[in-house]
Amino acid sequence: MTFFLTTLLLWLSGIILIVPTTLLAMVVRRYIDVNQLRTNNEVAGFKFATVGVLYAVLLAFAVVVVWEKFNQAESEVAKEAGAAATVFRLTQGVDPERGAAIREATTDYLTSAIASDWPAMESGTQSPATTEALNEIYHAILKFQSLGTDERLVLAEILRQVDRISEARRERRVMADGIVPAIIWVVLFGGAFLTIGFTFFFGAENLRAQSLMTGALSILVFAGLLTVVEIDHPFAGTVKVGPEALAAVVKDFAGAPPQR
């Protein structure tokens, strides 16, 4: 369900997650006899404070974790782009034929990552075409046997940068599947309904004011959940990490003649 909400527009996900729960909480409140609940106010208030604090800590922890992972996803894409740009620059230090082959393979990889990897990550799948394009970079580097000493040093550094590309891609593919485990989702949603439901143990003479307070609490709780849902998959949905960094490398280096 969380991945389904992620794939929707942000405003539509907000409506689905926040509006029905808030309206339900406010409507149910109107059909509970206030006189039966007034005697619970003192005890319920103490217990509600405990429940509220525990859920607030859990929700805040979830938000912080997914936000850190979202930033890490952006960082991995930037590292991948930086390593690719370094590969382009290092090819100036090898034979023109070898350099051209490596640049072409790197360009094909970046193009495939933008065109295939990102749509695949959005749908929760993988792109074999991009994996093959990455393999072609290694093939373009390793297929030459006769090398001078200087070229060996340069190609060794190129291989190290390609390894960084491979590692960064593996990291973003892992993070694309989501960060929050299923058991945490159960606790988050269960805790949300428990926290809102606890308000029904209170009785107040002003029913309208109590309904509004319950609705405000529901909006706050489920808005926090919406934040976690939206950034749990860093490469899908409205709030996501895009391939702009890779596209900038293609624009800057692809097709450009090597400078000597």
What report would you give on this structure?
This protein has helices at residues 2-7, 10-30, 41-90, 96-122, 128-142, 149-176, 182-198, 207-232, 244-253. Helix 3 (41-90) runs antiparallel to helix 7 and helix 4 runs antiparallel to helix 9 (244-253). It is rod-shaped and about 90 Å long. The model has no long low-confidence stretch (mean pLDDT 80). It is mainly α and 260 residues long.
Can you lay out the helices and strands and say which pair or pack?
Blueprint: H1 2-7, H2 10-30, H3 41-90, H4 96-122, H5 128-142, H6 149-176, H7 182-198, H8 207-232, H9 244-253
Helix pairs in contact: 2-8, 3-4, 3-6, 3-7, 3-8, 3-9, 4-5, 4-9, 5-6, 7-8
- Rg result: 26 Å
Beta-strand percentage range: under 5%
Mean pLDDT: 80
Instruction: Please trace the helix and strand order, writing H or E for each element.
Output: HHHHHHHHH
Class inferred from helices and paired strands: mainly alpha
How many individual β-strands? 0
Instruction: Give the proportion of residues in helices.
Output: over 70%
The DSSP helix count reads 9
Overall 3D geometry?
A: rod-shaped
**First-last Cα distance:** 55 Å
Largest sheet: none
Residue runs with pLDDT of under 50 for 5 or more positions = none
Offer a few descriptive terms.
about 260 residues; mainly alpha
